[in-house]
């Protein structure tokens, strides 16, 4: 096989890259509760019910403790709650304390991860029936019942709810821990909002995020984060007070006690502890622009439609969200943001209306949202929907709706076999760069192997080459708890202790870290390098990073042969010298290999220095390999 000769022209800029690479967070696979959201107690407010899942009940994840010589009863009550939005609470009647009576929370499967020497924040709401105060022992235990750490509180006598906090230090490590609450006196205890957080959350925030998972997301260097869904947004009742309502962002603000539990359409309960304010703050902390997605008053799963004479409420929710994010304290919702602790605006630039919506129910309602938002906030970029298809009649209707309403972007979603991605590398070549841009809001090839990641890397060179037509893109889904799988593939797998980067994660990270600012001309045989018949299974793109003065070339060799490769940089000025060359390589001889909980580092990027001879780099590229070449220009 002869040498493949690729020409890069640093003097020919073909596009700007903007905010191309980001992430999409949706609470499926227990990505929030039992995942990114660091709460360790499952069913902390005793609100689980059959609406969430047919197997759920208010005492799910709770156990009664009745040791030798003890006697107690427990039940759920709702006659005098702390908050009517979370009406259920636990009643424990202790008749004899014996060797221990109380309740235990087992956490999320297979139990709580407790680390020796680490501190944990306990909190709860509690009251008595007025017969006297009640001492409580708060005990971290392993699955054998051994005490791993303890704190003590005393619940004041009286029927008024009070807030209690304590700090518990773990004396041993376990991955199957639980929280036990022992009631050490005869009497009646009312208990609600029982919570346990690690003290070490991401950025040390209270009500915070699990540090290891949040750090992995930050390490992607995403330019934006789409949230909170997904089908989670638009599947449900149109009544905001219903347990199974469409996602209503205002319900997620304020104190946790006042956030109503809701059915997650992925078959479990959603506490809303990770709410819109937390999403916005997390975006700010990791340097990602927020991209919220709102329902459009239409549930395509059940054909529920908000009547047109009631649509103003839904449109106002969109306007209020923009005000919450961007307005100062002179506006009602800007003031609410300030009162929550964030006086500066969040700087919202993007908003999505609808997720995968198709059908006349959406197409008839979208224009009302678009018109109202553009009239009040003309600089906000509005993203419309083209449905869950990569082609077809409904897809075309979605695009026609977006064009006729002058949407800024159109949200495309597709999950396909690797062969589809190889065959559709030219997908965006023919798109109109003067029309709405593409927001590729969900995509992945079916699988988490090295081969899947390699094909995704090759496809992304096409996105990069067409950056004037593809404005934003994010892989999906983002997170999966290995004990609660709704959907595969996923970018990050985790359990209660570990978090694992898949090979697809590393591909996204390499693109995110080496995005650049300007797309450069890159050709082979005077054509873009798109795996054509005479291009030996190679896919490539080139960018320039004006902030770092770097030229970056990405090449995927999808063939099963070693490829002798020449990279020639033409059009450089006489004073320009390429130096400090680096090659970051991602490959595996086993195409079916992936990183797992058991082998988390089976495949990782490897970086080596490279030397360039003047303006030409000659290398041999191994089979089934993705590489990123980086050179300083100066």
Global shape: globular
Distance between the termini: 35 Å
Helix content: 10-25%
**Biggest pleated-sheet summary:** 9 strands, mixed
Tell me the total number of β-strands: 35
The radius of gyration over CA amounts to: 27 Å
Low-confidence stretches: none
Structural class: alpha+beta
Strand sequence of the main sheet, in spatial order?
33-32-35-30-29-28-1-31-34
- Count of helices? 10
Kindly report the average pLDDT value: 96
**What is the strand content?**
25-35%
List the helices and strands and how they pair.
Layout: E1 4-16, E2 23-24, E3 62-66, E4 71-77, E5 89-96, E6 101-105, E7 112-114, E8 119-128, E9 134-141, E10 147-155, E11 162-169, E12 174-183, E13 187-198, H1 211-218, E14 224-227, H2 231-234, E15 262-264, E16 268-270, H3 276-286, E17 289-294, E18 298-299, E19 304-305, H4 311-326, H5 332-340, E20 350-353, H6 360-376, E21 381-385, H7 393-404, E22 409-416, H8 418-423, E23 437-445, H9 450-465, E24 470-473, E25 479-481, E26 492-494, E27 499-501, H10 503-513, E28 518-524, E29 538-545, E30 550-557, E31 563-569, E32 578-587, E33 606-609, E34 616-621, E35 625-633
Parallel strand pairs: 1-31, 2-14, 14-17, 17-20, 20-21, 21-22, 22-23, 23-24, 25-26
Antiparallel strand pairs: 1-28, 3-6, 4-5, 5-13, 6-12, 7-12, 8-11, 8-13, 9-10, 9-12, 15-16, 18-19, 26-27, 28-29, 29-30, 30-35, 31-34, 32-33, 32-35
Helix pairs in contact: 4-5, 4-6, 9-10
